[in-house]
Amino acid sequence: xxDYKAPxxxxxxxxxxxxxxxxxxxxxxxxAETVDAETVEAILEEAGKVTAKSIAPxxxxxxxxxxxxxxxxxxxxxxxxxxxxxxxxxxxVGVGGDPAFGxxxxxxxxxxxxxxxxxxxxxxxxxxxxxxxxxxxxINTHASEELKAAYLPNMYSGVWAGSMCLxxxxxxxxxxxxxxxxEPQADGSYKVSGTKIxxxxxxxxxxxxxxxxxxxxxxxxxxxxxxxxxxxxPKFLVNADGSLGARNPANCGSIEHKMGIQASATCVxxxxxxxxxxxxxPNKGLAAMFTMMNYERLGVGIQGLATGERxxxxxVEYARDRLQSRSPTGPKAKDKVADPIIVHPDVRRMLLTxxxxxxxxxxxxxxxxxxxxxxxxxxxxxxxxxxxSLVALLTPVAKAFLTDLGLETTVHGQQVFGGHGYIREWGxxxxxxxxxxxxxxxxxxxxxxxxxxGRKIVGNGGAYYRLFAEEMRHFIKTADAGLAEFTQPxxxxxxxxxxxxxxxxxxxxxNPDEIGAASVEYLQAFGYTAYAYMWALMAKAALGKxxxxxxxxxxxxxxxxYFARLLPRIHSLTASVKAGSELLFLLDVEQx
Length: 592
Ligand SMILES: Cc1cc2nc3c(=O)[nH]c(=O)nc-3n(C[C@H](O)[C@H](O)[C@H](O)COP(=O)(O)OP(=O)(O)OC[C@H]3O[C@@H](n4cnc5c(N)ncnc54)[C@H](O)[C@@H]3O)c2cc1C
Hints:
binds flavin-adenine dinucleotide, two-stranded antiparallel ribbon, seven-stranded mixed sheet, alpha+beta, about 600 residues
């Protein structure tokens, strides 16, 4: 496997030249105090070093060794505890955390780049800090001041970790039917009882305490999603002076044996009258989780991108070295027995598909991160509301589209290696196994598509959609004539998406099955159109500079490839959506 090199040049390009983030930060007083260009540059450089040097080398061994369970204790692979300590001591767990409790206070647009680097280095390792940071978002937004002060500083500093306990054996997508119970106690705490499964980082040896955020039902809770509350349940109780107290009965019953991310402990957690504390209001637990979910879902999308990037870096190195056959236009490496496979059109197609997907994904995830920052920090209510709407609309796209393309690009990277891509030694097969989960957890991609189509499009008559479409049209209308080769196909793609959106809105009025029938292909058509907007923005920032630096020439070339070879996928997706729902119900259940 090639050594991982953080794509800092592209990250800087996206942040500074495409989106000019400093301008946004200057408008957000809370950020103006914590962020400046120099700090961001230092963060990117340092994160690039720590992830490449301390974490990436553990990925292969972590996959081979996996996690071990012994009588309730979970041991992570060799090197993980030390690497976690290094990562935590660098302040990386709290990179986006609230400075009032010891976080670094970086905007999401910056922490998103750090997330990409850590997940490219090792997806399994990256999950531990990611879950901790996600738990912190929920605690900081919804918990009492007392809980925040007691838990956040040790979580941001990485001394304690976090976990998210939602799923139960009979309840995954449908959290409204969970059975875990919380009984109120005289001292204001609760006793939480129930079994959760598939809990990432539910138990491990990386930190001295683990803070579980657990969804449970109060005794008088209404049935369904409106009867769920959120509780903070520590592995070790915390004394008034901050020291660790008694072991709480929140135990790991076993860990799962699974396809990939072997170094991430996926735990069955048994809560047996464990002491817990309510976060937010009773029965409003799902709302409290949703605050975290927007961050977490974008983070999972970034995992897809991160794995695709790692696969790409390996594939490029291999394609330059591997000698097979001659170029169709005549030998290129005449001194060698054959040409490097990078001369072949099909290998180039795969590499360019990967490059275009990764760079489009990096721009899109940064764009969504900027909307999250605006929604959180803007002092203007209308600006906040607009950004909130865009976050709601684009989060399911970021989660599902980045991970769908993440799998596609990771598999292309495996294919470039031919048979060697299927063999352990080269690392590509691990990446394929690892990335697959990103389409499944944090809400399957089918559920993301349903969220987009049902709640975020049909649910508001297309209002959020129109905000995004108007922004794209404004860009097209005000762009220089020199950008026409990009803005014209972008304009046609937006027209197509408008038409498709209206088509579904119209059909959904009389048949609710149209929403679920259209949703996955609609989300993908949306994703390709959104990436076309990203690629047009990137082309704008690079055009005219091609002679200055090969980076810009490569950007413009990749933009051309995206518009000519990937954007046309919207046509087949559109045709599939318009096939409607009836075909899906032609067969009786017995006919399958
Ligand atoms: C490695 C791993 C780590 C995980 N980490 C965590 C964690 O840290 N915390 C946690 O709480 N959970 C975690 N999960 C659980 C994960 O989030 C769930 O597996 C996922 O949300 C899907 O739930 P399910 O497995 O019960 O599938 P189901 O809900 O049973 O879904 C099965 C299929 O039916 C489809 N489906 C269900 N309902 C609908 C519908 N209404 N319309 C259309 N299609 C539908 C789904 O898309 C899916 O394809 C993890 C899972 C794994 C495998």
